[in-house]
Amino acid sequence: MWDSPMHLLIIAVVILVLFGGRKIPEVMKGLGQGVREFKEGMRGDQPQPPQTSQPANPPAAQPPAAVATEEKK
Q1: How far apart are CA 53 and CA 56, in angstroms?
Q2: Taking the alpha carbons of 6, 11, 12, 17 in that order, is the dihedral positive or negative?
Q3: Left, alpha or beta for 44 (phi > 0: left; psi -120 to 50: alpha)?
Q4: Where are the alpha helices (DSSP H) in the chain?
Q5: Residue 34's closest CA among 16, 13, 48, 42?
Q6: Could you tell me if 29 and 36 are in contact, meaning their C-beta atoms sit under 8 angstroms apart?
């Protein structure tokens, strides 16, 4: 079915017409990310979210500092 380079050339031209020259790199980038995520999912390498260390006892809220106001003359 795909025995001729002419078939691939026709497909490339159709894709270029459908997506335009500027959109093709974005489409390929998205396709690459999708393939990478699929491979990671198949291997079972689930990325662990970064663990944030939170203090056990957060500091008590302090009352707002008194703001000194200057009287204008």
Answers
A1: 9
A2: positive
A3: left
A4: 5-19, 23-43
A5: 42
A6: no
Strand, coil or helix: 28:
helix
Whole-number Å distance between alpha carbons of 10 and 8 = 5
State the chain's mean pLDDT as an integer. 75
CB-CB contact of 23 with 15 (8 Å) = no
The answer, yes or no, to whether residue 13 has pLDDT greater than 80, is: yes
Q: What is the pTM of this model?
A: 0.39
In whole angstroms, give the CA distance from residue 12 to residue 19.
Answer: 11
Which residue is it, tokens 């997506």? 19
Tens-digit pLDDT profile for residues 35-60:
999 998 888 755 566 666 665 665 56
